[in-house]
Design goal:
- The protein has 177 residues and is an alpha+beta fold.
- The protein has a single domain, classed as Yope Regulator, Chain: A (2-Layer Sandwich), CATH 3.30.1460.20.
- The chain is built from 6 helices and 7 strands; from the N terminus they run βββααβαβαααββ.
- A 5-stranded antiparallel beta sheet has the order 1-2-3-5-4. A two-stranded antiparallel sheet has the order 6-7.
- A hairpin with a 6-residue loop joins strand 2 and strand 3.
- The longest helix has 33 residues, at 119-151.
- The protein is elongated, with a radius of gyration of 28 Å.
- It starts with a strand and ends in a 7-residue tail after the last strand.
């Protein structure tokens, strides 16, 4: 049996009951403006795919185990309603929390609960920041390309030109051939 939890309409968390550990399955369904969904889903998939990779490093080896699936729902979601499970355009993230992650006292438990409850907000924040960064880079690139195009415009005939000394003269058009 699975339990649905979520303070936002886009956020769905399934907590299948287990004796020794807890599995938190985050269903990433991105519902923004229609033209932004594909871009946000692509960024989200790229970002979420890094969670299992980051845990392989020595610094995060004691972090909760994490798995990410962009398409297939985890086996723990077998009893879940299909309408919610099939709505994951960002994929599925499973975080397994063992007793060692929360058993060090009330501060460690509070930190673990806080990290799990703000997971959606952190992912959403990073997706928005990534989109803003890419848009800034695209605007900068467009601006530099426009400068190159403006410099490549041919000069107009009969326009007044200036010499290095500051004296102006008019260029005569070439004689017709």
């Amino acid at each position: 049996m699975c339990t649905r939890s979520g303070s936002r309409t886009q956020q769905t968390v399934w907590l299948p009951p287990r004796l020794c550990f807890t599995i938190n399955i985050w269903i990433a369904s991105l519902t923004t403006k229609l033209h932004c969904v594909l871009a946000a889903a692509t960024i989200a998939r790229t970002f979420l795919a890094q969670f299992p990779e980051a845990r392989r490093g020595a610094a995060l080896s004691t972090a909760p185990s994490c798995s990410y699936s962009p398409n297939a729902a985890p086996l723990e979601l077998r009893g879940a309603p299909a309408a919610l499970v099939n709505n994951a355009n960002g994929g599925y993230v499973s975080l397994v929390v063992f007793k060692r992650h929360v058993g060090g006292g009330p501060k460690q438990l509070e930190a673990a609960v806080w990290a799990l409850s703000t997971f959606y907000g952190v992912v959403s924040y990073h997706i928005k920041c990534s989109k803003a960064y890419m848009h800034t880079r695209m605007r900068s690139r467009t601006h530099s390309l426009l400068q190159v195009l403006n410099r490549a415009k041919p000069e107009q005939e009969g326009r007044e030109k200036k010499l290095a000394s500051g004296r102006a003269f008019k260029a005569k058009p070439p004689p017709p051939s």
